[in-house]
Amino acid sequence: MAKRKRAIPQYGTVVLNGIEYYRTRVEDSDGNRVALYAKTPEKLYDKELEALEQIDSTTFRRRSPTVAEYCEKWLLMQSVHVRATTLTDYTSKVRRHIIGGLGDKRMADVSLDDIQLALVPVSKKSASVYKSVVILCKSIFRAAKESHVIDEDPTIYLDAKGGVPQEERQALTDEQVERLLDTIRDLPPYVFVMIGLYAGLRREEILALQWDSVYLDAEAPYLTVRRAWHTEHNRPVILTELKTKAAQRNIPLPVCLVECLKDAKKKSTSDYVIANRDGDPLSYTQFKRLWQYIVTRTAKPRMARKLVDGKYVKYMLYPKLGEKARNNGHVVYSLDFEVTPHQLRHTYITNLIHSSVDPKTVQYLAGHESSKITMDIYAKVKYNRPDDLVKAMGCAFDLWDAV
Predict the structure, then answer these.
(1) Is residue 55 located within the same domain as residue 29?
(2) Residue 24 bridge partners (DSSP)
(3) Torsion region of 86: left, alpha or beta (phi above 0 gives left; psi -120 to 50 gives alpha)
(4) Residue 338 maps to a domain
(5) Looking at the 3D structure of the chain, how many domains does it have?
(6) What angle do CA 373, 378, 379 make, to 5 degrees?
(7) Host domain of residue 378
């Protein structure tokens, strides 16, 4: 079968320096007419196609929005189907870590190298933050490709592994729990700490807890988790939409927590179990101030300030266990270990496991949506006691010998 010849357009000719050339004109991406020359129609045709391809590519890149423009559009699209708290988290990370490093670039011009360079500062943060930023980056560029904003997705080979590995969370020992409670017994964070230790609620669940969800007079006292605390611009927002469906749960209360909550309720003038002086839920700043009662009683080196000649000067403070604070005789450094709000919850879950509560019940009480989260914690806690392992193995081998 004969090869079909391509149709070559009819070009005009022009003589330059005594030599005849074929000539045509194309319009570039700026709208300017550009002349092209060649000695044969075939060569001019090839030259024209190449020029048009380059012009189309340039025009496409110029039409392509900046990373900042597209990211803001993407965030707006997400607002339709994600929770307000999730959108706030997305917005913070996208603006700080993606727009911050790539915002002025055109989406079509961004390469994998550009993205990896933008992620260098993020790599100094926790592994979980690094992973979430990478996932957001992949989601944004994948959406741009699906919408034909870009031809190729530069994040295909982007690895989510990176960041600073977090230290494994350690539960408080019984002795540490006792010392912590003795230290803050008559102080504002006491009720918060008791709920964390003996009901295992997340910080946002404790700060949103209202008395209508605490059933102290029931035959078996319990509380219901049905609200979540969140802040926007330091102002508290109480949501009825929880982190997951599994977060809504009923928690039985041990006697020590029942007594604590009964005493707190007698003194309360608020609908909230943890409230500020006006009876409102705490702002983020107010919560930090609440937790400061624990921090200031911890014998840990830290930066402090003192007034010198009318100006505050920073200096390092090296507290010693048992000493009184220099500027406040009511504060005694009573704790030689650090405590975080989440550590209270982790201690609760750990104690459930050490009490031989089955994994499915632990999962329910902890409000874990995924059994994998529970089992990962369960495995680390349950099999982190060599003496328990020896007993278990001994029983197993005794059973095999019997067989």
Answers:
(1) yes
(2) 36
(3) alpha
(4) no
(5) 3
(6) 105
(7) 343-402
Same domain, 48 and 82: no
Return d(Cα 139, Cα 115) in angstroms, integer. Answer: 13
73 with 139, same domain? yes
Place of tokens 């020992």: 173
Strands 228-232 and 12-16: unpaired
Let me know if residue 373 belongs to a domain: yes
- Check whether 89 has a pLDDT greater than 60: yes
The overall average pLDDT reported for the chain is: 86
**Same-domain status, 139 and 74:** yes
C-beta of residue 242 within 8 angstroms of C-beta of residue 225? yes
In a domain, 185, yes or no: no
Out of 146, 170, 204, pick the residue that ends a domain: 146
Task: Indicate left, alpha or beta for 162 from its phi (over 0: left) and psi (-120 to 50: alpha).
Answer: left
State how far the Cα of 142 lies from the Cα of 136, in Å rounded to an integer.
Answer: 10
| pLDDT for the residue numbered 403 | 46
**Confidence grade of residue 122 (pLDDT, cut at 50, 70, 90):** very high
Q: What are phi and psi of 264, to 5 degrees?
A: -65, -40
Q: Measured between alpha carbons, how far is 379 from 382 in angstroms, rounded to an integer? A: 5
Neighbour-count burial for 118-156, b at 16+ CB within 10 Å, e otherwise: bbeebeeeeeebbbbbbebbbebbebbbeeebbeebbbe
Q: Is residue 82 within 8 Å of residue 125, measured between CB atoms?
A: no
**Domain presence at residue 170:** no
Distances in Å between the Cα of 121 and the Cα atoms of 36, 93, 133, 134 are 48, 12, 11, 13
Give 15's contacts (C-beta < 8 A, 6+ positions apart): 21
Answer whether 335's CB lies under 8 Å from 179's CB.
yes
Tokens describing residue 105: 């670039």
Q: Quick one: which H or E segment has residue 220?
A: none
